[in-house]
Write a structure and sequence with these properties.
Elements (H helix, E strand, L loop, with lengths): L2 E11 L3 H8 L5 H4 L3 E5 L7 E8 L2 E14 L3 E7 L8 E11 L2 E11 L3 H34 L1
Antiparallel strand pairs: 1-7, 2-3, 3-4, 4-5, 5-6, 6-7
Length: about 150
Amino acid sequence: MTVGRVSSTELPIPARAGMVWSVLTDLESYPAWNPFIRKAEGPRRAGARWRLELTLNGRAYLTLRVQVTCWEPGRRLTWRGGIPAMPHLLAGTHDVRITETRQGVTLVQAVAVTGLLAPGLFPWLRTRTQARFAAMNEAVRDEVARRMAETA
């Protein structure tokens, strides 16, 4: 199988890791702030199965069923999904990392794809995914700021 890093984006956020984690794992609030994952449902733990509804320009266009493969509170969240019943054609691992810095944290999102279709889809996926991850990172930053202002 072919593995390719499709995209990786990062953004500094002037907040503590716990606050960023609380926004990322508050699945019920996604419709209010998340421009990429409009809806997310599932238990919050490693091994859980989630249902994600991804959007394109505000419209639902894809529902994925994924499995949470890494759950490290305040540090890392990873899930894996693919074409149902045909993961050998195309599957992806979405990795979200929170790294503490002197100014707050750095939020990194990346996805790696595998499967027979990965080489042909790589250029198309990379540009679209980077734009969506960047928009989501900015939305996380803005939601963190909004929540911090509410509690100040």
